[in-house]
Amino acid sequence: MNERNLVELHRRQAERLGPRPALRYKRHGVWHDVTWEQYRAEALASAAALIESGVAPGDRVGMIAENSIDWLIADMAILAAGAINVPPHAPLTAKQIHFQLADAEINFLFVSNRVQLEKLRQIRAHLPPLRGVVVFDSDALAGSEAVVSWAAFRQQGRRALPRVAVELARREAALGPDDLATIMYTSGTTGNPKGVMLTHGNLVSNVRAMLERSGQQAGDVVLSWLPYTHIYARTVDHYSTLVSGVLLCLAESAETLVQDLADVQPTHMASVPRFYEKVLTLVADPDPNVVGRRLRDLFGPRVDWLSSGGAPLPYPVARTYVDAGVLVLQGYGLTETSPVISFNAKDAYKLETVGRPLPGIEVKIAADGEILTRGPHVMKGYWKNPAATAEAIRDGWFHTGDLGELDADGFLKITGRKKELIVLSNGKKVVPSFIEGLLQSDPCIDQAVVCGEGRNFLTALIVPHWPNVRTALGDPIEADASPKVVELLQHRIQAALVDVCGAEQIKKFVIVPQPFSVAADELTVSLKLRRNVVLAKYARQLEELYR
User: How many helices and strands (H and E) does the chain possess?
Assistant: First the structure.
């Protein structure tokens, strides 16, 4: 097969596999199957409803929703209508979601439930191009105006399908590899994220290269739980199974994952390092043989290999799994690269690396150690941001901002980060300077340094503005880390970060009594923070926060 777009790929698999199960999901404690022909029919009905609602090719359609069978169907419907999916991360605040939807100028929107609908209510007046809203959960409709239920929307589409079938076929035929499939917003160096434009060609090429490396077979079973609002799960779970034709099982939730593993007994699952670390804590025992047996029992008898991405996988963690007979293969990529650049293979891996570049993907190391990549996986650019696009893609090479090296066998090893971006152990990315700016806007906080690379939550070094702290406390002599000062700063930090998502919250902090200075080598002569110097200086105190 040589499909030009994801819609054609979906249609051909439905024609080929028809009554075979494509998707499996759990609702009210019972697992349900959706066949390929049902999957296609539901997507076509929803696409017809979008067309009837006035969605044109190239329009942007938003989706504020957690993982579900509805998410997958709506995504395929958006693409079948020739439109572009813009899916903000579901945990984001209304303010953060507003920026993305307004920047993308969305015309239509899918919303999952009452919580997400409430966020929309806060910002809808500031989204003038928005013409229609569909909510997946019918219980959220009470008292809602100008909102359509998912069931009614699909029924509308079934009635419209005979009228628009020719138009749907025309739109599929018109979609080329260079047409946009999605705009996904990723953290930048300022408060506003950048919209990464990924095309049908980007995603189809990356899926095919990934499957060539992984060797997935038709009888395999994939358990999927990472959010589809990140390109990692969307490519390696959602779109990969469109190409391979394997069964995609949706975990009920992150909290039920262990039970879902027992129910599904998958051959493959993608995850982030934090999950693998938490599982090791769950099965911990002084005897390695006991740990090994518990790991094998937890992941089930059919598991072939597991993949890890989104953040660096610590070598001791990977080694423990392999020694237990549960192979965890690490890969590397970015949203801008669809996302996979490199991945280890079952028959050729090095645990301390992120594998060899995928087939058709070029990687080279620049003179300063930065990893550069070129190929069909590289994004079309940043939405409405030609300057940022020109900075990121130079002479055809995408500059990752990461530092690395290629060994004699062509395996890529990540050695550091060139750009200032914190990656938490769950794969969430945070721009520290943005959070620091919010903190330092509070009159009681003079300086702030945010940290948490590879950890599961953020911490900070806080230099109080002592005169303002004393005023706020009504105590003219207070100038230490007393409980009163700690409590005041805790409230101030929470207030400063009220509009950012959970991953960007500061859970714990250290009070630094004296300001950072040039004399102490903590600031440059232009008063820029020497982040590495400061973090090294306070490494012990920060480490205590994670104990």
Answer: 19, 27
Local structure of 49: helix, strand or coil: helix
358 touches 342 (CB < 8 A): yes
Helix 36-52 with 69-80: angle, nearest 10 deg:
60
Percent of the chain at pLDDT > 70 equals 97
CB 147 within 8 A of CB 135: yes
| Secondary structure of residue 361 in the 3-state scheme | coil
Extract the tokens encoding 506.
């500061």
Per DSSP, the residues of 64-101 read E--SSHHHHHHHHHHHHTT-EEE---TTS-HHHHHHHH
User: Do 389 and 274 touch, CB atoms closer than 8 A?
Assistant: no
d(CA 529, CA 523) in angstroms, rounded, equals: 5
Asked if pLDDT for residue 143 goes beyond 50, the answer is yes
Give residue for tokens 């599929």. 172
What CATH number is given to the structural domain containing 52? 3.40.50.980
In whole angstroms, give the CA distance from residue 381 to residue 400. Answer: 13
pLDDT at 52 over 90: yes
- Residue 503: CATH number of its domain: 3.30.300.30
> 0.90 exceeded by the pTM?
no
- Same domain as 126, residue 163: yes
Q: What is the mean pLDDT of the chain?
A: 93
Domain span at 373? 204-419
Residues 289 and 315 both lie in one domain = yes
What residues pair up with 399 in beta bridges, in sequence order? 372
How far is residue 514 from each of residues 244, 476, 491, measured CA to CA in Å?
59, 18, 21
The average pLDDT across 203-223 equals 94
Query: In whole angstroms, what is the distance from residue 196 CA to residue 184 CA?
Result: 5
> What is the C-alpha separation between 440 and 444, in angstroms, rounded?
8
Considering only CA atoms, give the Rg of the chain. Answer: 24
CATH number at residue 252: 3.40.50.12780
What is the rounded CA–CA span in Å between residue 329 and residue 179?
A: 32
Strand partners, 374: 362
| Contact predicate 341/373, CB 8 Å | yes
How many domains is the chain partitioned into structurally?
Answer: 3
Altogether, the residues listed in the chain come to a count of 547
From 487, 372, 460, 359, select the one nearest 418 (Cα to Cα). Answer: 372
Residue range 300-343, pLDDT digits in tens? 999 999 999 988 888 888 999 999 999 999 999 999 999 999 99
CA nearest 402: which of 389, 384, 420? 420
Residue type (1 letter), 33? D
